[in-house]
Design goal:
Layout lengths: L2 E3 L6 H4 L8 E2 L2 H10 L4 E5 H6 L4 E10 L6 E5 L8 E4 L5 H12 L5 E2 L5 E5 H11 L4 E3 H9 L3 E8 L7 H16 L1 H4 L3 H10 L1 E4 L1 H13 L8 E2 L1
Parallel strand pairs: 1-2, 1-3, 4-12, 6-7, 6-8
Antiparallel strand pairs: 3-10, 4-10, 4-11, 5-8, 5-9
Length: about 230
Amino acid sequence: MRIGCVPYGHAKPFALAWPTSEPLWGHPKELAEKLRTGELDLALVPVWEVLAHPGYRVIDGVAVGAKGEVRSVAVFHDKPLQECGTITLTEHSMTSVQLWRLVAARMKFKIQEGPRGEAQLLIGDEALQEWRKRKGKGVMDLGKAWWDWTSLPFVFAVWAVGPKSKARPTDWADFREACLAGVAKRGDWAKGEEEREYLTKCIQYGLGKEEKEGLNEFAQRSGLGKVDIEWV
């Protein structure tokens, strides 16, 4: 299979689980585009891609999400967000941008999107580095903001099978088992206590009933209604 994966720390349990299959590395938005056009058979894509473009099949049982603080998806600011007039949004994500817009509307922030903002929405390792530098101060963690709002997990990314994929169902099943095996060992593969905490406590890799409820809640609050996803 032609596999696409993000080059971020939270994907480490996946990458180490299938070392013989070198994936195409790319940012979430880039992978979504390649999956849509048939350049990839399977990729870790923003959940917004699946919600906004029906027709994907999604690998059941494994995802990238959070139940509260996630650290690697956050808005960073040097003064209170209520006083920030502009925000710069990451160009690599769709899900995180949409989540920010929902949270901002709920909290009635009047912040314009644009370059050189007084606040910044970052994802992945870039966000983690900024979080560490600030020691969690001047940060709105979007995983926590969603949890505080809904008491539901948030699913940031899923493994989706492209509409033009020629991979077989047995390939999908084997792939899921490899990913789950990698997730089970994530604590052993972590380098240092900080990464171990991030991989075992901040990032949630499950995709069960509760996560799907959170996913549907995100779709409905975004005006998409209840989305019918084919789980494989």
